[in-house]
C-alpha cells in the first residue's frame, strides 16, 4: 500500500516535470515572429516564375534583412511552401501557428549562414516535389535551431505564387511491362483451361 | 454415394497421408505438411486469400507518396478506399455459386489471375479517378474468402472444419497486416537501392503483389485439386433440377431475418477491420509524425493479430457453446464485438502515440475475435442455404466497411480521430441486433427456447413437402442431429449429452459440429 502510494507520487512528479519541460522549451508561434527578412523568388535570369518543372528547372531565391535591429540568428533556412490553393482539402499540408505542428513548408531549399548583407541560392527543383502552387519562405534560426525571424515571397500565400509541374513517375518501360504481364496472366489462365479440357476429352475418348 | 465409399474405403485409406473419413475428407490438419490433396489445398487456399488481401491493401501504406504524385484531396483518397471494399460485395455474392459450378480450384485461379492486370495497372494511374477505379477492381479479389472457405470445407471433415476455417480465414486476413510492412519496404528498395525517384518507386512496388497473383494462380492450377478424390469436372453431379434448387436456396436465405442480422453484424466486425486497414497507416503518419516505414509497422500490428485472434474467437465461441449452448455463443459474440466498439472509441480519444498503439491492438483483437465468433454461429442459421448465407454475411462485411469509410473517413470536415470515436459508437449500436437472433430450439440472448421445438423441425422446414418426399432433406436431418450439441451442457434441455463429459481441450477441434458441403 505504502509502495504504491510512493509510486503514484513519483509518477505525478515525473509527469509534472515533463509537462514543465515541454512548456519551458516554448512554442514558436509564426504570428509572433518578426518579419525581418525580405524574400524574392525568380527564375535564374531574374524574370518572374510562372511555371517550373521539377528535375529540369531552377529558381533563384534571394533573401535580405530589412531591419537595422540585431537578430540573434546564425543560419537562414529557405523553404518551399504551399499556397492556399494547394492546401485545400489536404489536411496533411495544413497551416498551424505553432511552428512545430505547421506543415505549410515541407521542402527545404537551402541552409546558409546569416549575414546582414543577405544571400541568394539557385535551387534545382528536386524530383520528389509534388505538383502544386508554391511560394518561398525564409526562417532565420539561432544556434539552437529555434526560429527568430521570417520573411516570404508571397504576402498572403495567394498572390505571387508559382506553379510547379512534377514528374509523373511513369516510364514507357513500366507501361510495356504492365501490358506484357497482364497478357501473360490472362493468356496462361485460358491456355491452361483449354489445354486441360482437351486433355480430359482425350482421356474420356480413350 | 454410400456404395462408392464402401467400395473405395480400404484401398484408398492407404492412398492419403492423413487419416480420412468416409468422404475422404481429412480428419486432422497438419499445418507443416504439404501432403496432397488435403494439406496442399489448405495451403493454396489460405495463401491465395492472403495474397488478395495483400494487393487490396497495398495502396494504404503508400498513400502519403501516392497522394502527392496524383495530387489527390482527402475526399478522393476516401472515395478510393470505399471503392476498394465495395467491389467485392458483388464478387463475394457470386463466388459461392461459381464454386458450385466449376469448383474452388478454377474459381480461385480465375479470380486471381484475371485480377492480376488490375494490380499491375496501378503502376499506370495518373490521377485520383484512375486510382479509385484501380482500387475498385483490385478489391474484387477479396471474394477469395468464399472460395477459401469452400475449398477447405470440401477437404476437411465436419468435426474440424471450423478450426481449419478459422485458421485459413485468419491467416488469409494477415495479408492486410503484412502488406503495411511489406509495401513501404519494397518502395524503399526501389527508391534507394535501385535509384528511382519516389514517384516511380511506388509504381514499381505494385509489380510485387501482381506477380504473386500470377504465381499463385499457376500453382493452384498445377497443384490444386477441388476434392479429395479428384477435380470437380471429373465427378458426377447429383440429379435434380439445379436451377429451381438454386432459387429455393436463395429464397430461404433471403427470407430469414437472421441472415440480415448477420449481414449487419459482420459489417461491424470484419467491415471495421477493413476500414482500419485502409486508414490507420495514414492516421499514424499524419497525427504522430512518423515516417512511412514506422507508420506501416504499427498499422501492420493491427492486421497481424489475426494470427491468433480470429481462430481464438472461434475457439471461445465453441467453448461458450459447449457450456451454454447457442445462447452462450450469442452472448460471447455480443460481448466481444461491443468491446471492440469500446476500444475504438478510446483509440480515437488517445492523444499520444503509445496509448494509441495499445488501444489499436486491443481493438483489432476484439473485432477479429468477433469475426471468428460470427462464423461459429452462421453455419447453424441454415443448412440448406449455407453457401448463400456465407456469401451474404461476407458481402455485409464489405458493405459495413463502405458505410463506415464513407461516413467517417472521407469528409474533410472532421479529423480522423473524431471519425474513430463515431465509428466505435456505431459498432456498439449495430451490435445490438444480435439480441434479436432467436432459435426456437435453442433460444436467444434474452429469451429461452420454446418448449417442444427441435433441431429437426428447424432444418427440415427449409425443404418443401415435395422435396422431402424425394428424400432430398436427409443431409439436413443428419446435420440437425449433430447440432443438438448447441443446447449446451448447462443450457437445460438435454439431460445426458455425451459431449458434456468430454474434456474441453478436444473441443478445439470441433468448432462446427457439422458442416459438409
Automatic annotation (TrEMBL), chain A:
InterPro entries, per the entry: Transptr_NO3_Nar2
Positions of transmembrane segments: 176-195
Cellular component aspect of the GO annotation: plasma membrane
Pfam family, one: NAR2
Annotated keywords: Cell membrane, Membrane, Nitrate assimilation, Signal, Transmembrane, Transmembrane helix
GO BP: any one term: nitrate assimilation
Record has Cell membrane as a keyword: yes
Signal peptide: 1-26
Superkingdom classification of source: Eukaryota
Single annotated GO MF: nitrate transmembrane transporter activity
Entry's family note: Belongs to the NAR2 family.
Protein task: Involved in nitrate transport.
Protein name per UniProt: High-affinity nitrate transporter
Higher taxonomy: Eukaryota, Viridiplantae, Streptophyta, Embryophyta, Bryophyta
TrEMBL record, chain B:
Cellular component GO terms, alphabetical: plasma membrane
Domain Major facilitator superfamily (MFS) profile: from-to ranges: 41-436
Gene3D superfamilies according to UniProt: MFS general substrate transporter like domains
Cell compartment(s), UniProt: Membrane
GO molecular function (one): nitrate transmembrane transporter activity
CDD domains the record matches: MFS_NRT2_like
Transmembrane regions listed in the UniProt entry: 44-65, 106-124, 130-152, 164-190, 202-224, 245-270, 330-350, 356-381, 388-408, 420-439
PROSITE patterns reported in the protein's UniProt record: MFS
GO biological process: nitrate assimilation; nitrate transmembrane transport
Protein name: Nitrate transporter
Source organism of this protein record: Physcomitrium patens
Amino acid at each position: 500500500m505504502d509502495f504504491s502510494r510512493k509510486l503514484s507520487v513519483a509518477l505525478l512528479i515525473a509527469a509534472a516535470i515533463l509537462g514543465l519541460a515541454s512548456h519551458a522549451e516554448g512554442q514558436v508561434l509564426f504570428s509572433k515572429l518578426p518579419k525581418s527578412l525580405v524574400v524574392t523568388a525568380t527564375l535564374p535570369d531574374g524574370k518572374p516564375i510562372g511555371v517550373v518543372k521539377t528535375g529540369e528547372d531552377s529558381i533563384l531565391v534571394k533573401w535580405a534583412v530589412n531591419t537595422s535591429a540585431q537578430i540573434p540568428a546564425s543560419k537562414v533556412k529557405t523553404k518551399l511552401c504551399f499556397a492556399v490553393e494547394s492546401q485545400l482539402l489536404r489536411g496533411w499540408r495544413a497551416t498551424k501557428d505553432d511552428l512545430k505542428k505547421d506543415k505549410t513548408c515541407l521542402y527545404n531549399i537551402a541552409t546558409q549562414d546569416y549575414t546582414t548583407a543577405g544571400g541568394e541560392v539557385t535551387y534545382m527543383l528536386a524530383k520528389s516535389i509534388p505538383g502544386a502552387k508554391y511560394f518561398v519562405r525564409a526562417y532565420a534560426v539561432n544556434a539552437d535551431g529555434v526560429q527568430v525571424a521570417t520573411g516570404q515571397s508571397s504576402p498572403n500565400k495567394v498572390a505571387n505564387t508559382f506553379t510547379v509541374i512534377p514528374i509523373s513517375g511513369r516510364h514507357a518501360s513500366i507501361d510495356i511491362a504492365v501490358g506484357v504481364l497482364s497478357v501473360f496472366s490472362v493468356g496462361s489462365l485460358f491456355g491452361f483451361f483449354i489445354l486441360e479440357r482437351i486433355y480430359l476429352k482425350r482421356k474420356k475418348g480413350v | 454415394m454410400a456404395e462408392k465409399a464402401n467400395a473405395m474405403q480400404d484401398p484408398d485409406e492407404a492412398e492419403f497421408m492423413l487419416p480420412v473419413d468416409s468422404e475422404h475428407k481429412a480428419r486432422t490438419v497438419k499445418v507443416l505438411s504439404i501432403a496432397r490433396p488435403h494439406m496442399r489445398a489448405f495451403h493454396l487456399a489460405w495463401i491465395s486469400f492472403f495474397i488478395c488481401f495483400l494487393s487490396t491493401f497495398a495502396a494504404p501504406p503508400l498513400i502519403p507518396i501516392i497522394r502527392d504524385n496524383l495530387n489527390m484531396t482527402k475526399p478522393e483518397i476516401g472515395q478510393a478506399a470505399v471503392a476498394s471494399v465495395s467491389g467485392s460485395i458483388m464478387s463475394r455474392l457470386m463466388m459461392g455459386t461459381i464454386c458450385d459450378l466449376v469448383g474452388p480450384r478454377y474459381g480461385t485461379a480465375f479470380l486471381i489471375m484475371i485480377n492480376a492486370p488490375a494490380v499491375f495497372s496501378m503502376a499506370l494511374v495518373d490521377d485520383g479517378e484512375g486510382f479509385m477505379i484501380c482500387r475498385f477492381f483490385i478489391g474484387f479479389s477479396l471474394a477469395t474468402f468464399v472460395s477459401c472457405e469452400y475449398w477447405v470445407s470440401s477437404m476437411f471433415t465436419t468435426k474440424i472444419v471450423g478450426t481449419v476455417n478459422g485458421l485459413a480465414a485468419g491467416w488469409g486476413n494477415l495479408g492486410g497486416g503484412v502488406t503495411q510492412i511489406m509495401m513501404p519496404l519494397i518502395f524503399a528498395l526501389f527508391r534507394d537501392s535501385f535509384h528511382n525517384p519516389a514517384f516511380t518507386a511506388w509504381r514499381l512496388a505494385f509489380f510485387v503483389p501482381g506477380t504473386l497473383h500470377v504465381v499463385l494462380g499457376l500453382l493452384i492450377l498445377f497443384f490444386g485439386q477441388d476434392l479429395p478424390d479428384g477435380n470437380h469436372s471429373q465427378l458426377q453431379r447429383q440429379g435434380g433440377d439445379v436451377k429451381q434448387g438454386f432459387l429455393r436456396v436463395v429464397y430461404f436465405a433471403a427470407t430469414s431475418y437472421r441472415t440480415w442480422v448477420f449481414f449487419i453484424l459482420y459489417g461491424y466486425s470484419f467491415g471495421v477491420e477493413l476500414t482500419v486497414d485502409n486508414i490507420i497507416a495514414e492516421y499514424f503518419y499524419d497525427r504522430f509524425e512518423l515516417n512511412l516505414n514506422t507508420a506501416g509497422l504499427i498499422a501492420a500490428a493491427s492486421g497481424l493479430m489475426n494470427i491468433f485472434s480470429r481462430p481464438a474467437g472461434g475457439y471461445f465461441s465453441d467453448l461458450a457453446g459447449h457450456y451454454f449452448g447457442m445462447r452462450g455463443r450469442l452472448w460471447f459474440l455480443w460481448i466481444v464485438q461491443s468491446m471492440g466498439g469500446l476500444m475504438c472509441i478510446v483509440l480515437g480519444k488517445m492523444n499520444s502515440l503509445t496509448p494509441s498503439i495499445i488501444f489499436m491492438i486491443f481493438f483489432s483483437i476484439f473485432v477479429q475475435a468477433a469475426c471468428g465468433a460470427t462464423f461459429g454461429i452462421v453455419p447453424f442459421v441454415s443448412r440448406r442455404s449455407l453457401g448463400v448465407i456465407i456469401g451474404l454475411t461476407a458481402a455485409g462485411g464489405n458493405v459495413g466497411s463502405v458505410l463506415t469509410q464513407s461516413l467517417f473517413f472521407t469528409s474533410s470536415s472532421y479529423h480522423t480521430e473524431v471519425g474513430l470515436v463515431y465509428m466505435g459508437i456505431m459498432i456498439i449500436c449495430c451490435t445490438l441486433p444480435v439480441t434479436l437472433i432467436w432459435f426456437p430450439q435453442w433460444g436467444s440472448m434474452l429469451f429461452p427456447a420454446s418448449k417442444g421445438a427441435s433441431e429437426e423441425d428447424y432444418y427440415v422446414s427449409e425443404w418443401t413437402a415435395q422435396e422431402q418426399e424425394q428424400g432430398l432433406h436427409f443431409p439436413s436431418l443428419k446435420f440437425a442431429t449433430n447440432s443438438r450439441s448447441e443446447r449446451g451442457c448447462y443450457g437445460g434441455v438435454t439431460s445426458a449429452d455425451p459431449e458434456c463429459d468430454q474434456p474441453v481441450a478436444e473441443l478445439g477441434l470441433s468448432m462446427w459440429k457439422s458442416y459438409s458441403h
